[in-house]
Write a structure and sequence with these properties.
The protein is mainly alpha-helical. Among the domains are: about 150-255, Serine Threonine Protein Phosphatase 5, Tetratricopeptide repeat (Alpha Horseshoe); about 390-460, no CATH class. It has 26 helices and no strands. The protein has helices at about 5-25, 30-40, 45-60, 65-75, 80-95, 100-110, 115-130, 135-145, 150-165, 170-180, 185-200, 205-215, 220-235, 240-250, 260-270, 275-285, 290-305, 310-320, 325-340, 345-355, 360-375, 380-385, 395-405, 410-420, 430-440, 445-460. It starts with a helix and ends with a helix. It comes from Miscanthus lutarioriparius. Belongs to the PPR family. P subfamily. Keywords: Repeat, Signal, Transit peptide. This is Pentatricopeptide repeat-containing protein.
C-alpha cells in the first residue's frame, strides 16, 4: 500500500518524538534500532531525526561520535543544517577543541549552511574560553555584518567573556548600553553582570546592580544574592554580606542550606561564635537537607569552640545519614584535635584518612606535621612528610621551623634544599632561622649550600 505524503510526514514526526524520548532517557541503542527499523519499513529519517541522534552521541561519546552520525546523514542523502553544526561546535567547545570548532564553522560556511545566532554564540564562547577575546569580538562584528540578530544569550556570552578577559569596565558599560537601548536584559544577564563585578572586586557596583534588579520585573534569585553575599565576605565587607543574607532570607529566596553554610563559615572566621550558632539553629529549623558542606561547616564551628565531642557526634550523624567523610572533614577534625593537643587522636584520623585513599589531603597532613613540630616530635614529623604523596610550602615551612627550634640546623638545611629543589618555597622567617642557626653553629659548608640553593631558586623564579 502506497502511503500519502501526509501519512509519511505524520509517521516521521511521531518517529522523531520517539527518538527524542529515547535519547533523553539515555537509551541510545534503542534509538538506533528505531532508526534502522524505520529505514527498513520505507520511512527515511529526516534531518531532525539525525540531529537528535547526533546530539545524544555527542553528549555520551564526544565529537568523533557526532561526526560519525554526520557521515551517515550524508550517505543517506540528508543534508546537515545549522542545528547539526551548532551541536558539533558546542561539543568541540566543551572539549576544549578550539581549532576543531573553527574548522567546523568554516565547513558550515563552505557547505552553504547559513549560521544562526546559536552558531555565533557557540563560536564566541569557544574563543573566549580558549583565551582569544579579540577573535570573539570579530565573530560578533561579523554576526552584525551578516544581519544575524543577537539574542539574550549572545549578550550574556559577550558580558561573561569580557569579565573573564579582565575588561570589567567595558562589560559594565555594555550592560548599561543594553539597558538604554531596550535590548533583552533578563535575570541571567543580571546574574552574569553581578557575578562578573563580584569576581572583579567591584562590590559596590555589584550591590548597586542588585538594588536596581529589585526595582525591575525580574525577581532576584538565590544565585544573585548568594553571589553578592560571598563577594562581600571575600573582600572584607562583612556587615554588607550579612545584610545581603538577611535580604535573601526575608525574600524567601533560600531553597537549600548553602547560603546558611556561607554565612556561618564567615562568622566562624571572624570569631563571632554566638552569631554562628544562631544561624546554625536557623539552618536546622529551615528543614533543609544537609549535605557534606553543611556537616563540615557545623563540625568546623564545634572544633573552633573546642567542643570536640559535639563535633564527633555530628560526624556520626553525618555517616548514619549515608554521607561519607571527605578531605575537608578530615582536615577540620585533624586541625581541631591538634589545636586541643590531642596528637594521638589526630594521628588516628590521619590513619583513617589514608585507609580511605585520601593520601593527597595536604591540608590535614600539614596540620598534623605542624602539631608534631610544636610538640618537638620532629622525627615523627619527618616520617609523616616522607609518607605524603604531595607536599607544599607550608609542609616544609612547619618542618624547617620545628627542626630549628630543637637545634637541628643541619637537618633543617637539608629539608630546605629539598624543598627548593622540588620547586616549593618556605616562609622568609624559616629561611632566616636556618641561616642564623647554621651561622651560630659554625656549619659553614651547609650555609654555603643553602645560600647557593636560594640563589638558584630566585633565578629560576625570575
Amino acid at each position: 500500500m502506497v502511503r500519502s505524503r501526509a501519512q509519511l510526514a505524520l509517521s516521521t514526526r511521531l518517529m522523531n518524538v520517539g527518538l527524542a524520548a529515547l535519547c533523553r532517557g539515555g537509551w541510545l541503542d534503542r534509538a538506533e534500532s528505531v532508526l534502522v527499523d524505520a529505514i527498513r519499513l520505507g520511512l527515511p529519517p529526516d534531518v531532525v531525526a539525525y540531529n537528535t541522534l547526533l546530539a545524544a552521541h555527542c553528549r555520551v561519546a564526544g565529537l568523533d561520535a557526532g561526526l560519525a552520525v554526520v557521515h551517515r546523514m550524508r550517505e543517506a542523502g540528508v543534508r546537515p543544517d545549522a542545528v547539526t553544526y551548532n551541536s558539533l561546535i558546542t561539543v568541540a567547545d566543551r572539549s576544549g577543541l578550539t581549532v576543531r570548532a573553527l574548522d567546523l564553522f568554516d565547513e558550515m560556511l563552505r557547505s552553504g549552511v547559513a549560521p544562526d545566532s546559536w552558531s555565533y554564540n557557540a563560536l564566541m564562547h569557544c574563543l573566549f574560553r580558549s583565551g582569544h577575546p579579540e577573535h570573539a569580538y570579530r565573530v560578533f562584528a561579523d554576526m552584525a555584518e551578516k544581519g544575524v540578530a543577537p539574542c539574550a544569550t549572545t549578550y550574556n556570552t559577550l558580558l561573561d567573556g569580557l569579565f573573564k578577559a579582565g575588561h570589567a569596565t567595558n562589560a559594565y558599560r555594555m550592560f548599561r548600553y543594553l539597558e538604554r537601548a531596550g535590548l533583552p536584559v533578563g535575570i541571567v544577564t543580571y546574574n552574569t553582570i553581578i557575578n562578573g563585578l563580584c569576581k572583579s572586586g567591584k562590590v559596590g557596583y555589584a550591590r548597586m546592580v542588585l538594588k536596581e534588579l529589585g526595582r525591575t520585573e525580574h525577581a532576584p534569585n538565590a544565585v544573585t544574592y548568594t553571589t553578592v553575599m560571598k563577594c562581600c565576605f571575600r573582600y572584607g565587607r562583612f556587615e554588607q554580606g550579612l545584610e545581603t543574607f538577611l535580604s535573601l532570607l526575608e525574600g524567601g529566596y533560600i531553597s537549600d542550606a548553602f547560603p546558611y553554610t556561607t554565612v556561618i563559615s564567615a562568622l566562624v572566621k571572624k570569631g563571632r561564635m554566638q552569631e554562628a550558632n544562631t544561624y546554625c539553629e536557623l539552618m536546622i529549623q529551615s528543614g533543609s537537607t544537609f549535605d557534606n558542606a553543611c556537616y563540615n561547616t557545623l563540625i568546623h564551628l564545634r572544633c573552633q569552640e573546642g567542643k570536640l565531642d559535639d563535633a564527633f557526634e555530628l560526624l556520626n550523624m553525618m555517616e548514619e545519614g549515608g554521607l561519607e567523610s571527605d578531605e575537608y572533614t578530615f582536615s577540620i577534625l585533624v586541625n581541631g584535635l591538634c589545636k586541643m593537643g590531642q596528637i594521638e587522636a589526630a594521628e588516628k584520623q590521619v590513619w583513617s584518612m589514608e585507609m580511605m585513599g585520601m593520601q593527597s589531603n595536604v591540608v590535614a597532613y600539614n596540620c598534623f606535621i605542624d602539631a608534631l613540630c610544636k610538640s618537638h616530635e620532629v622525627d615523627a614529623a619527618i616520617k609523616v612528610l616522607h609518607s605524603m604523596k604531595l607536599k607544599d610550602n607550608f609542609t616544609y615551612t612547619s618542618l624547617v621551623h620545628g627542626l630549628c627550634k630543637v637545634g637541628r640546623y643541619h637537618m633543617a638545611s637539608k629539608f630546605l634544599r629539598i624543598c627548593l629543589h622540588e620547586g616549593n618555597n618556605v616562609l622568609a622567617s624559616a629561611k632566616r632561622a636556618v641561616i642564623s642557626g647554621l651561622r651560630s653553629a659554625g656549619f659553614k659548608n651547609d650555609l654555603r649550600k643553602v645560600r647557593s640553593a636560594l640563589y638558584i631558586a630566585r633565578l629560576l623564579r625570575s
